[in-house]
Amino acid sequence: MTTDSRLLYSQLPATDRLLRDSAFQPLLDAYGHTRVVNTLRAMQEAARLAIRERQALPSWCDDWAAAAADRLARGSQSALRPVFNLTGTVLHTNLGRALQAEEAVEAVARAMRSPVTLEYDAEGGERGHRDRALAELLCELTGAEDACIVNNNAAAVLLMLAALGAGKEVIVSRGELVEIGGAFRIPDVMRQAGCQLVEVGTTNRTHLRDYLDAVGEQTALLMKVHTSNYQIEGFTKAVEAAELAQASTLPVIVDLGSGSLIDLSQYGLPKEPMPQEALAAGASLVSFSGDKLPGGPQAGIIVGKKSLIAALQKHPLKRALRADKMTLAALDATLRLYLHPEKLAERLPTLRLLTRQASDINEQAQRLRPALEARYGDEFQIDVTPCLSQIGSGSLPVDRLPGAALTFTPRDGRGGRLEALAARWRRLPVPVIGRVGDGRLWLDLRCLEDEAGLMEMLLQ
Ligand SMILES: *Cc1c(COP(=O)(O)O)cnc(C)c1O
Questions:
Q1: Is the CB–ligand 1 distance for residue 151 below 6 Å?
Q2: How far apart are CA 370 and CA 109, in angstroms?
Q3: Backbone angles phi, psi at 278, to 5 degrees
Q4: What would be one Gene Ontology cellular-component term for the protein (predicted)?
Q5: Closest approach atom of ligand 1 to CA 93
Q6: Contact 177 CB / ligand 1 (< 6 Å)
Q7: What is the pLDDT of residues 321-363, one digit of tens each?
């Protein structure tokens, strides 16, 4: 060891002495003895490493209390931190999809604090069935005979196939063998469910006779999958669930993906397929996600024929895939909002954000621009720019929603500045997530409701 490094090691303060320092009292109060001591040990270790490798003390050694406070604060951040979603994608899978309605938030808090009638029929005083109350609500909303709720739509598809098609053949059009982000692929799910996939038709065209020619003694199901994240255009032909149901006595099951419980065209939005329409057309079972367009919690919802739902409820996989009481509480509260459609666009955050007018978002952008100009104007040109937001989560891949963004263009034309700005905003206490494109950083304001909170972040 050199004399220099010996001198440096001797400058490292002893943990005991630091703990007696008055600057550490607030940290001990806030985080407790164990965590503060563990943090100091890790800091001592880091300082020794720096002496070994660089023969120098890290700069934070000037103020151990401040450095410890910083580390403890960072280590106390929740794994699920709130962010500002200004990406322009309303149902952003990586940011947790649908925001829950206040009614759902309250219902979840109640279900967490108190015992609830999850599998208990309060009137009969007997053991009930956990999906029962929600099934009644779903039947009212979709015209179904019964319903089953699982963890997510991927689980719903797996359960339908495993319970009704295991060891048998399931016929699907080649145009509908979808892959959804996060490795959900129809052929893989078929295999996991123990079904034999029978592909019919071609990528762009599938006819009724393709399905009927493929039906044999081993066929259990005809399956339709909504091509939610792509569109095949041009010389195309697909067979509707209604045609399949009319032409065959086999159950027709439909994976609808997003599945909207209301006709979105009444709000001037592009129409998405609705579970009630698929059932009316003769589908035996329809599955969809709770946290896409329905605007509820993550869940897989299956609606349809009583006898088939009963088979799903009895299957051992149902127990493994069932939803928990918090999910059911949030879903119940969300579905109840649909019973009052006049207020839905106000109360359901997903619909509230999707139905925001471009003029309203543009005004908001104009309102925020001057303060941002004062703060960032030297380095960036800041404009209010028309933009197209998307629904996200595989809904309506082609249709876009006109809105407005604040765009930041580096005055010196250097792209590196955009990345640096985006990175700085990602490190804020409440990170601000935009997108970089076209030589600018875009903050799409469609999903901005807490204006004051955003400005507090960006102006600090
Ligand atoms: C989104 C989607 C799924 C997966 O649903 P999760 O709720 O994310 O599990 C399955 N099929 C289709 C067609 C989808 O759009």
A1: no
A2: 40
A3: -65, -40
A4: cytoplasm
A5: 8
A6: no
A7: 999 999 999 999 999 999 999 999 999 999 999 999 999 999 9
